Design the sequence.
């Protein structure tokens, strides 16, 4: 094995893999770097060919225009708050309901369990566009338009979240659960005191993916909210592109401000879901 590692073929292979990974990182990071640089530029500098990566001079006014809005309505703080409320609430309900569902489908035996699981998974095959109109009509009938309820209720739990929790909890040692039952702990106590605290990696992964999907959700808020004060960040961003004379610098600035919560959430939770892969592999082994 040591001779293979030291062989020229292995060294060339290692160099090629390293170069490929570097190229992939550059390809991934370049749009983010462009957004940061462009947020400090004028529209003329952003559209210039060739593109100059260093702003000269820095246009800090772009961030003022981003927060003030194209019509200086100053709705950006409220729209950010709306996105936090909707994304945070949906994330918490998804973690709770998907965790309970995944726990039940992985650790309990009951008649029709496989049918229930397959039915839940089948909903993932239905595109949102196919159910968009029925959902909109139901929201109208239930008086959910222009309200937080209309933005949150349709996304209280996701089929993918249930699938993710079930697959993770299938590897959870059943001996721990049996020992807790012998000690007299109830099922809710086992779930909240034993299962959930020891599922931090998958919960962190599910939290970041759920929060991101809701933070970037554009179509459903566009349908159910007409009140500017109830709109979310994606709708606020589109208001810049709808203008006849778009301010590209302010657009990049508001995109950067809207991306910051996701970047902070990613780096805050990265240690859980990066380390979680090692835990999952050790359980499989």
Sequence:
């Amino acid at each position: 094995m040591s001779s293979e590692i030291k062989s020229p073929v292995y060294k060339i292979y290692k160099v090629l893999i390293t170069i490929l990974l570097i190229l992939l990182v550059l390809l991934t990071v370049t749009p983010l770097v462009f957004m940061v640089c462009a947020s400090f530029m004028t529209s003329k500098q952003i559209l210039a060919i060739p593109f100059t990566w260093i702003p000269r001079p820095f246009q800090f006014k772009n961030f003022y225009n981003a927060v003030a809005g194209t019509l200086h309505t100053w709705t950006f703080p409220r729209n950010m708050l709306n996105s936090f409320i909707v994304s945070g609430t949906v994330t918490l309900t998804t973690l709770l309901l998907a965790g309970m569902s995944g726990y039940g489908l992985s650790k309990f035996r009951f008649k029709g369990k496989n049918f229930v699981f397959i039915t839940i998974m089948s909903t993932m095959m239905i595109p949102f566009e196919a159910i968009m109109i029925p959902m909109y009509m139901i929201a109208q009938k239930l008086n959910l338009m222009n309200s937080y309820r209309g933005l949150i209720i349709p996304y209280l739990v996701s089929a993918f979240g249930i699938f993710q929790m079930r697959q993770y909890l299938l590897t959870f040692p059943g001996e721990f659960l049996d020992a807790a039952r012998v000690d007299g702990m109830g099922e809710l106590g086992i779930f909240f005191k034993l299962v959930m605290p020891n599922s931090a990696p998958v919960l962190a992964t599910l939290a970041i993916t759920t929060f991101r999907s809701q933070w970037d959700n554009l179509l459903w808020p566009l349908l159910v909210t007409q009140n500017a004060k109830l709109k979310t960040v994606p709708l606020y961003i589109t208001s810049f592109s709808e203008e006849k004379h778009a301010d590209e610098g302010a657009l990049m600035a508001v995109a950067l401000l809207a991306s910051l919560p996701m970047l902070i959430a990613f780096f805050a939770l990265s240690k859980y879901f990066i380390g979680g892969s090692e835990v999952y592999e050790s359980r499989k082994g």
Q: What stands out?
A: Confidence is low (pLDDT under 50) at residues 276-285. The two ends are 22 Å apart (CA to CA).
